[in-house]
Structures are given as structure tokens and as C-alpha cells.
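Below is how a single chain appears once it has passed through the pipeline. First comes the sequence as given, then the structure the pipeline wrote out for it. We keep one example in the README because the format questions we get most often are answered faster by looking than by reading.
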Amino acid sequence: MPIFSFLLFVFITSFTPGPNNIMAMAFANKHGYKKTIKFCLGVGVGFFAITLLCSFLNNILLSAMPIIEFPLTIFGVAYMLYLAYKILISKDTKGEDDEGNSNGFFIGILLQFVNPKGILFGITVVSTFILPYYTSYASYLLFSFFLGIVGLLSTFSWSLFGSIFQKYLLHNRQQFNIVMAVLLLYSAFSILVK
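Resulting structure:
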């Protein structure tokens, strides 16, 4: 396997803006870094699961992709639009009980199963870099674990950015929410325009 190409592809794709990273930054800005850890862990677990499923079911997924690609894309775009709307209308929650953040772990996992960028990334990395060179289930598990860790690290880094600038962004929350919503809209529409 061309290790450098694999790592370059994985890190560039994982650390560039996308639904996971934008949501992590928005969560951290709104709830703080510690409360965002649940979301980041959910992203890591969800990404591990998606990659593992892509490894084991690659041939089935590739043959079914023309059938499921359009509904998956529409559902993923609709979910991202919903997330953009929720960010756009969110208000300052100082002093409020944060019930929405308690489900951060499950939101992080769910996002992976409706995130076309993540699913297509999983299929691409598995079919291009893993399956041609490795055939054991142990290697699929190790690569999935590695890719889950990379997903976790990318969301952690974006949430750290959101929490570091939290005090500054508190004064500009509406503008920040608009920018985050627009970035999610861009992510959603870029999936449609491929």
C-alpha cells in the first residue's frame, strides 16, 4: 500500500471542513470543550462503524451504491440542512439546562450514517487503499480503528478551536452561527453538485 498517499488522503479529507468538524466547532462554541467530548466520541465510534461496514460489505455496497446513492444523498443533505437551521436559530444558552447536548454521543454516531461525505470517504479509502493490499479481518478492524481515531482527532481539534475562541465568539454569536450554518449549507450543496 502507498502509505504516504493513504495518510495524505485520510488526513486531508478528515481535517477539512465537513459536517463532523463544523458541528464539533459549533458544539464547542455553544457548550464548551468538555461537553463536546461526547459528540466527538460519537463521531469516532460512528466513523469506526462506517469504515468497518465498508470493509466487510464493500462489494455489496459498491453494487448497491447506484440504488442507495440518491436516497442517501437526499437524506444526508436534508439532515445537514436541518443542522444548519438549528445552528442558525440557536440562542445563547447561558444559565439554561443543556438537554440537547446530553445526546451528543448519539448525534455524533447518527451523523456518520447520514453523512454522504463520510460514507463515500469510507468506501473510497477501503476500496482504494485497504482491500487491494489486505485480506484479513484483523487488518480491516485495525484500519477501521485507525480511521475512527483520525475522525476523533479531527473533531477534537475543531472543537478545541471552537472552545478557544468561545469568549470572542460569544460577543459575535449571531455572526458565528450564520457562518457555521452557511458552511453546513455549502457542505450539503457540494454533495449535490459533486
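Residues 20-91+99-193 form one domain.

See the next section for the split statistics.
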